[in-house]
Structure to design on (400 residues):
């Protein structure tokens, strides 16, 4: 091992899990406050008193650092939902979505912005942010099929997850129509549940 | 009238409707090709051989110029649809959305980007780009209520337009799930139509 490589390995090993969490938190804070463009290696280094060289050595590029921070966050919003009924699960998802939106609207906005502006980030964002949410909603529907609440093969089953996320995205664009946080609940009750029970 | 004001009025009057169309086309071309950030007063001036001073005098700011260009475009995608039945109208909207998406994905992407990045543009974009589409879909549903196809007061009625636009927005994010252009058609048939007929 060259002296240089040994030094690099030693330095890298200095990043403890706590330190890593601190770095990721700084990335998410910058994302939340100023959007993707406001995240810079310099900014993260300054916030955490971490050497810029360490950031580059560990994560290589800004997209990789941001993706790692979002992936580590692991806050799959719809992940833990399991009330025992389809209506209960989807209503809980609507409730969680509304409170999450309020709590972390800045971060969600930054993710949406990065998604649109930086095609190189899309695959990573899909994998770390979008796919787990889709999988969680798919699981809600799959359990309802298993329980016999939804007929297997109902053509709406595959559309629930994208329709739910789409409605969530459009909600703010149509905000003059939805003056309270119950738009998602209304969507569940008036659109998704009837569609899922429409056949059979 | 001061000499200065008279000169300004004379200059302004030199912008013929044809010239205006040419300027708006240049704005939309820049938007389509490089997104909102690539639209500059300099770029539009260079493309059209128009004086930059004229652009500033006439439109004041870039957001106002972009908004005017989008508003003049007047291509309300769902505007002319009237097949005589609810299913026919919504299926036609799905078909038009798919072909429009393909044809003008670059411009739609640029509008979405501008919407997210530039809060000062949002009100204008809502009014010129989003509201007319929502109104067109609302009109489809309203006609179905008049014809008795949908019960008045069906709680899904108000949600059709946002759900449709939301699904359209999310479609590309979930594109591995929707490998053809029929996702919107499936959404109409399996989700919207059953929901609209679910009560009553």
């Amino acid at each position: 091992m060259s002296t240089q490589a040994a030094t690099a390995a030693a330095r890298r090993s200095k990043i403890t899990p706590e330190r890593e969490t601190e770095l990721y938190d700084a990335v998410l804070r910058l994302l939340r406050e100023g959007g993707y463009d406001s995240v810079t290696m310099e900014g993260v280094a300054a916030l955490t008193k971490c050497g810029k060289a360490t950031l580059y050595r560990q994560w290589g590029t800004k997209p990789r650092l941001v993706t790692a921070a979002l992936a580590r966050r692991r806050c799959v919003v719809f992940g833990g939902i399991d009330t025992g009924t389809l209506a209960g699960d989807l209503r809980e998802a609507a409730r969680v979505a509304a409170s999450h939106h309020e709590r972390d609207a800045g971060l969600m906005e930054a993710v949406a912005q990065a998604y649109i502006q930086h095609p190189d980030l899309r695959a990573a964002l899909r994998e770390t942010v979008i796919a787990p949410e889709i999988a969680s909603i798919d699981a809600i529907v799959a359990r309802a099929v298993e329980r016999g609440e939804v007929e297997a093969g109902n053509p709406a089953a595959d559309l629930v997850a994208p329709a739910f996320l789409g409605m969530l995205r459009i909600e703010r664009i149509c905000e003059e129509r939805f003056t309270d946080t119950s738009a998602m609940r209304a969507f569940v009750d008036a659109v998704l549940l009837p569609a899922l029970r429409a056949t059979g």
